[in-house]
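Action item from last meeting closed. Structure (130 res):
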């Protein structure tokens, strides 16, 4: 009886993991980094209330300053900020590039973790079915 219970538990774990992997693949298919600037008085609003960023941008409470989207297949869209003279705003661009690198590192770490979890689940399923 305990063997059946173990097998059922492993199968449930594998099923739940498969659902999580499916959601994860949808989420990770595009990496998107948006860098905003905002007046000082809006920072607490962002931290405390987690408002809709699109709505805040429409109201003028935040300004999109740089944008990067990287698809899993490598297709990339980048919007680089300019200052009033038409030059690249290097301070905003530097912050944005750092955030893109962090997001890419996080995505790679998550992909490895999900791969490891899926591999462990398949191994456990094989053992449970033996």
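Sequence:
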């Amino acid at each position: 009886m305990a063997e059946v219970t173990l097998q059922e538990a492993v199968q449930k774990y594998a099923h739940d993991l498969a659902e999580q992997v499916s959601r994860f693949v949808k989420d990770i298919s595009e990496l998107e980094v948006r860098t905003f600037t905002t007046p000082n008085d809006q920072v607490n609003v962002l931290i405390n209330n987690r408002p809709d960023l699109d709505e805040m941008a429409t109201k003028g409470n935040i300004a999109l300053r740089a944008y990067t989207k990287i698809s899993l297949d490598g297709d990339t869209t980048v919007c680089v900020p300019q200052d009033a003279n038409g030059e690249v705003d290097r301070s905003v661009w530097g912050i944005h590039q750092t955030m893109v690198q962090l997001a890419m590192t996080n995505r790679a770490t998550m992909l490895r973790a999900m791969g490891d979890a899926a591999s462990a689940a398949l191994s456990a399923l094989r053992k449970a079915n033996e």
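Note appended to the action item: The chain has a mean pLDDT of 84.
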